[in-house]
Automatic annotation (TrEMBL):
<protein>
    <recommendedName>
        <fullName>Ferritin-like domain-containing protein</fullName>
    </recommendedName>
</protein>
<dbReference type="InterPro" id="IPR009078">
    <property type="entry name" value="Ferritin-like_SF"/>
</dbReference>
């Protein structure tokens, strides 16, 4: 049924503060939770972190005390939502286990978005990026078996395949080649704006996660792999954030952020398999509706425009976590050798790409290659989970 967030008021802002007792959520069962429930938790953590950081940036350039107070009030609630959501992750999970779940999110969320995106240039950006996070999943899965003696299939549960994507060594482009052309805020479909915000937020939290947890490892190969993939996530943040029209006003961006939170909580409420978690998505949706109304009021006051002029008349089809195996396989077969030149996509390794590679590698293979070599030497092969047959690209077969 069509849901228009502008027609619902939600929970009044002054009633949204939760006690410590309410924030102390029961974590997911580490052994029996639906892997896609964990993916939804990780996604919403990324979205809440983005809400908080965006609001801080706005606060830093805003001189009006009344507006700053409203932003601070909403931001406090976003932080409480972030705490309630991220604290659903169980303490038993190792950092590497959570890392593998992060890359599963990147694969199946970006895969869904790529399939649903109506604009061909934006779609290409998601298709390009998803093949890289797909490869990260494979590299981390090999590290996981090597240092924790466990298999990534326990975590992805056969919903996502684990095998080489575009090899990580090829992700290290010249920074200027990670930029893209933005959509046009006046003509882009509302769903395109939501997609760009969602994937930007997901990549940003992945970048933050790796930069913080990487040095917690003792094993040199683990430290190096987190460093290397952490630098690729920096590239991904640049890649996706540059899709967003920089001409959007601060108020328009605030409205888009709050609308996107409504969209995702509504999506996850509709698709959640765990009733206890579904109730959290529903509660947070009802909080976001009030944030959205507050953002709309600010837009009317400071932009002199109606929010309806930038928003969809109703929520698009729900964002759904589901396997994207055949889609990824088709992309592998058709786009594995693609790279970037400026804001476009090319097949050849060009001069700027080669120069960057030489500077970084210094004549030695990076950790993303070493982890596979070491795994092969110790265990007689690499770790893969190919549920749909052999790899679609000949030279990437086991
Ligand atoms: Fe929020
Ligand atoms: Fe990644
Ligand atoms: Fe990424
Ligand atoms: Fe919000």
């Amino acid at each position: 049924m069509a849901f228009n967030p502008l027609e619902h008021r939600g929970i009044p802002l002054e009633k949204q503060v939760r006690s410590w007792r309410e924030l102390n959520v029961e974590p997911l069962d580490p052994d029996n939770a639906d892997p896609y429930t964990r993916c939804r938790v990780i996604t919403m953590n990324g979205i809440e972190v983005e809400a908080v950081m965006f609001s801080h940036h706005l606060n830093r350039v805003c001189a009006d005390m009344e507006v700053k107070q409203k932003l601070a009030e909403i931001r406090y609630i976003e932080q409480q939502q972030q705490k309630a959501v991220n604290w659903l992750l169980p303490g038993q999970a190792s950092v590497l286990e959570t890392t593998i779940a992060y890359e599963q999110v990147a694969v199946d969320l970006t895969g869904w978005v790529a399939r649903m995106e109506p604009d061909p240039y934006l779609k290409q950006a998601y298709e390009f990026g998803v093949l890289e996070d797909f490869d990260h999943l494979y590299r981390y899965a090999n590290l996981f078996e090597m240092i924790e003696h466990r298999k990534a299939e326990e975590i992805v549960d056969g919903l996502t395949e684990v095998m080489p994507g575009r090899p990580t060594i090829q992700h290290h482009r010249h920074p200027a080649d990670n930029l893209n052309e933005p959509y046009d805020r006046n003509s882009a479909a509302p769903i395109s704006k939501l997609h760009a915000l969602t994937i930007m937020a997901a990549e940003q939290q992945t970048m933050n996660f790796y930069m913080n947890v990487g040095p917690q490892y003792m094993e040199p190969i683990a430290r190096q792999l987190y460093q290397e993939i952490g630098m690729v996530e920096e590239e991904h943040v640049t890649h996706y954030e540059s899709l967003v029209d920089p001409g959007e006003t601060w108020w328009e961006r605030l409205v888009n952020h709050e609308y996107n939170e409504c969209y995702l909580y509504h999506s996850f409420m509709e698709t959640e398999s765990d009733p206890r978690i579904k109730a959290i998505w529903e509660l947070h949706l009802n909080m976001e509706l009030a944030h959205l109304h507050a953002a709309c009021d600010l837009m009317r006051t400071y932009d002199g425009r109606e929010p309806e002029s930038v928003l969809a008349p109703e929520l698009p089809a729900p964002v759904t976590f589901e396997p994207n195996k055949q889609y990824i396989r088709d992309l592998l077969a058709n786009q594995v050798d693609l790279t970037k030149l400026g804001t476009g996509y090319v097949w050849e390794a060009h001069e700027r790409f080669e120069k960057m590679q030489q500077q970084l590698m210094g004549g030695r293979p990076p950790a993303s290659e070493e982890v596979i070599t070491e795994h092969r030497d110790r265990m007689g092969g690499d770790y893969r989970l190919e549920t749909e047959g052999p790899h679609p690209v000949d030279r990437l077969r086991a």
